[in-house]
């Protein structure tokens, strides 16, 4: 315990500087009984029963943890800074390390292991999508009278029409189906020769809207049109999933004005993209006020994963990047802004995860959560609005049984409890355990972006023995993951490995099919879109059934 105390002492300066975590939350005991889901808390308008709030969920793409003004960035984000300062900053907020996983967990309230999407992302050529038996957030909100609209990036699969956003609960959809693409032309090549157009309005390619407008601005204009045409007396759910600041790094020229002094071209372009995004969110906020939504609205802002340093993003002082289970890959920029908050201008240091939005928003909307839906999220509105303790004490960051690149991983290294070749990560109270190969693990400080090209000489690196496949950190005392405690606290490691094993027993099989050549946009009018024809399959099935019946009938007559 003395060693742990020294570690905490070393970390106190950085904790005070950044204010990430509360010392009150140093609750020892991964073996402690799991918290139960909180009951239905008071709605945002407790004194105004029957008043359903307008819900606006804004999801940025690949925004780094440091890449917001109030986290010390050199990139100016006056809108985000103001909205966060007047609302509640989430400074212990977690998402998933990549696009599809975060989006699927937001829209279902379930961990990846419970939807089959625990490996990688959904690729454009894969016959895969968010399983159709999962109830979605917009579907639940529609049940209680909400108008539901999505603008931006879907990335939850589209190989069948039933997978499209309009079939998963949204009254309207305007945006892209894939994970990335050109910001102006909306074309995307998945591989040489496999290229297509990717801009949709509802279920059809939006050729009429293709006027060469930068996607961040185009999506904002669409949001303004939706707000202008909707009746603010009726509740609305707006899911705005901006493409920015994901690569390719593109931005209108005027946004480079303040960042010409940044020598690193990727960082300069990234800064311009973020400046444009910040302005877009200001325009969305102004539209909410102009058309009469703002006073009864809840605006939630989140990044979908950590930044990618090679593409201009910064997660400093956190370790790692997008695609990894280090804090830099999964700890996100997030805040809630609303006139309905009780503790405005505060910082929430309680544990919050992206799955928590599903039960929280349904409860705020006065909806019902079916008993048979096994959620992994918690209702955390009272935690955010009133500063109460979070009902969440753990997060399963993921278990990916396909990603077993840690060649030295073994059951022996996992004390016979867990095969440490498997990539997995879990947080219980202030302890975090990683197994397998967690991914790129450098700390990338701001000076790494000082040169014209990528420069890793400035990066801080840590060396460990080649056979290492287990790490343990006290995230509350060591948020930057600098001191591995796995050999010092083997009993804690065992407890967390057992918890991983318990979670794994509830996992469903991984959905990660091989690519389907029928997905080629050349076969679909040059557009990325649904290619799997249910009718053809049904006809073949009916034909074979008919032939079988006929054969049976002949045999009977004989």
UniProtKB/TrEMBL annotation:
<keyword id="KW-0106">Calcium</keyword>
<feature type="domain" description="Sulfatase N-terminal">
    <location>
        <begin position="53"/>
        <end position="365"/>
    </location>
</feature>
<dbReference type="InterPro" id="IPR017850">
    <property type="entry name" value="Alkaline_phosphatase_core_sf"/>
</dbReference>
<dbReference type="GO" id="GO:0008484">
    <property type="term" value="F:sulfuric ester hydrolase activity"/>
</dbReference>
<keyword id="KW-0325">Glycoprotein</keyword>
<dbReference type="InterPro" id="IPR024607">
    <property type="entry name" value="Sulfatase_CS"/>
</dbReference>
<feature type="region of interest" description="Disordered">
    <location>
        <begin position="508"/>
        <end position="558"/>
    </location>
</feature>
<dbReference type="GO" id="GO:0046872">
    <property type="term" value="F:metal ion binding"/>
</dbReference>
<dbReference type="InterPro" id="IPR047115">
    <property type="entry name" value="ARSB"/>
</dbReference>
<keyword id="KW-0479">Metal-binding</keyword>
<feature type="compositionally biased region" description="Basic and acidic residues">
    <location>
        <begin position="532"/>
        <end position="545"/>
    </location>
</feature>
<protein>
    <submittedName>
        <fullName>ARSJ Arylsulfatase</fullName>
    </submittedName>
</protein>
<keyword id="KW-0378">Hydrolase</keyword>
<dbReference type="Pfam" id="PF00884">
    <property type="entry name" value="Sulfatase"/>
</dbReference>
<comment type="similarity">
    <text>Belongs to the sulfatase family.</text>
</comment>
<dbReference type="InterPro" id="IPR000917">
    <property type="entry name" value="Sulfatase_N"/>
</dbReference>
<feature type="compositionally biased region" description="Basic residues">
    <location>
        <begin position="546"/>
        <end position="558"/>
    </location>
</feature>
